[in-house]
Amino acid sequence: MSATATASPAAVELDTNVRDKLLKVGSANVANVLLARGFRNVMMLGLAPLAQDQPQLVGPAYTLRFIPAREDLDSMANYGRTDNKHRRAIEECPPGAVLVIDAFGSLQASSMGDMMAARLRHRGVSGVVTDGGYRDSAAIEATGLPCYQVRNAPPATPIALHPVALDEPVGCAGVAVYPGDVLVGDRDGVVVIPRHLVEEVADEALDAVEYEDFAALHIANGRSIFGLFPATPESRAEYDEWVAAGRPELEKK
């Protein structure tokens, strides 16, 4: 599969082992791994978790794109139709996927409310990301669904947003997102991994986190970061010996 081809996350399932690895790493670790491959624009800047204690977000992207609303098309009556793409997204986003809502940065109306969040949670969706905002934020938080936004946007969706496309490439918070790309979100923010790189990125990001555990032990013991962090060939060899020895605690200095 080419790097630019589109595919539904329903057909691009995230391997359980890969998901488990990504649940152990941070968005910054992932961004650093991607930077080493030349990917500079992967962090969705300006987004924040709805709740600071929400679970880590990991899953392949299923996308919804909005454009500005128009009065003859967007009303509460039309919004209630079963063919409305916003409502369809809630029922069609695959379990395990992340609903990525391209709201073109608009905070004039809500990208999602609590009833939609509750339905997504019940259906097993991994979370929601938007470059707009939500309404009923306290109730969304109560569902336990990991969600990211710019800030709250209470007005009703049809006031400013018209849904036009599902499961197509979108731009969200300035980052290109193709269906099936994998998102990782934590307190720092959300990073997007091109789907064809996800397995190797997960391996390298987890390795980086485990090396940081080693470095943190030495720093807490008074060691300088020079020659330790970032890793050098010598410190990597030292790390490998430490792992082989069963990751022992250091003698306090």
From TrEMBL:
The reaction(s) this protein catalyses: oxaloacetate + H(+) = pyruvate + CO2; 4-hydroxy-4-methyl-2-oxoglutarate = 2 pyruvate
One Pfam family it belongs to: RraA-like
Gene3D superfamilies: Ribonuclease E inhibitor RraA/RraA-like
Catalytic activity, EC: 4.1.1.112, 4.1.3.17
Superkingdom classification of source: Bacteria
Cofactor(s) this protein cannot do without: a divalent metal cation
Function: Catalyzes the aldol cleavage of 4-hydroxy-4-methyl-2-oxoglutarate (HMG) into 2 molecules of pyruvate. Also contains a secondary oxaloacetate (OAA) decarboxylase activity due to the common pyruvate enolate transition state formed following C-C bond cleavage in the retro-aldol and decarboxylation reactions.
Family statement drawn from the similarity comment of this UniProt entry: Belongs to the class II aldolase/RraA-like family.
SUBUNIT field: Homotrimer.
Protein name stated in the entry: Putative 4-hydroxy-4-methyl-2-oxoglutarate aldolase
Source taxonomy: Bacteria, Bacillati, Actinomycetota, Actinomycetes, Micrococcales
